[in-house]
Amino acid sequence: MDIPVFVSCPTSLSAKQEAARKVVLTHLKRYKLEPRALGRSDYPTEFPLREVLVIARHCAGGIILGFEQFRSLSGVSKPGTKNEQHTRAPVSFPTPWNDLEAGILFGLGLPLLIFKEDCVTGGVFDAGVTDVFVHPIPEHTNDNGLNDVFLKWQSTVRQKYYAQ
Asked: The domain spanning residue 100 has which CATH number?
């Protein structure tokens, strides 16, 4: 029996993003972990945020995949405050569901593994927000560093699962 883990990931991905998601899924399969996600493996019977909590309660760990979902070519940060800043450089944002789902998983005390594209910042992807290191989105299945990250994380997932 595979151990369920929650995977926070947008449903609409570019070809490159989908390839990176498949790298993560390959590692999950290698360690006999079952990916669970709203809109992919599970579909809501109630409102979606409640369904995330229901799914997460049955999981022993969580992965957050911070893929770019929105790009602004310019903008104003913190408008109307003394910290207002104007930018003319592109700024990338992940899906807001990454932060919602990460908060639920963190609140449940589940071991987290967080990945993000280089361009993504903010929320759970900022350094020091959680006690978890934020890793770059993986590009290759046979990356020894990535293997080590998954080996360590899946160990804590198993401890959580068998302690329940």
From this structure: 3.40.50.10140
**Residue 51 near residue 102 (C-beta atoms within 8 A):** no
Q: Please state the domain count of the chain.
A: 1
pTM: 0.91
Residue with tokens 């929320």: 123
Distance CA 81, CA 109 (A): 35
103-159 pLDDT, tens per residue? Answer: 999 999 999 999 999 999 999 998 777 667 899 999 877 777 899 999 999 999 999
Q: Do the strands 91-93 and 70-72 form a parallel or antiparallel pair, or are they unpaired?
A: antiparallel
Contact partners, residue 8, CB within 8 Å, separation at least 6: 37, 62, 63, 64, 65, 97, 98, 101, 102, 105
Measured over the CA atoms of residue 119, residue 102, residue 111 and residue 5, the dihedral's sign is negative
How many angstroms separate the CA atoms of 91 and 73, rounded? 6
Question: Nearest to residue 55, comparing CAs of 72, 71, 38?
Answer: 38
Q: Nearest to residue 33, comparing CAs of 96, 111, 143?
A: 111
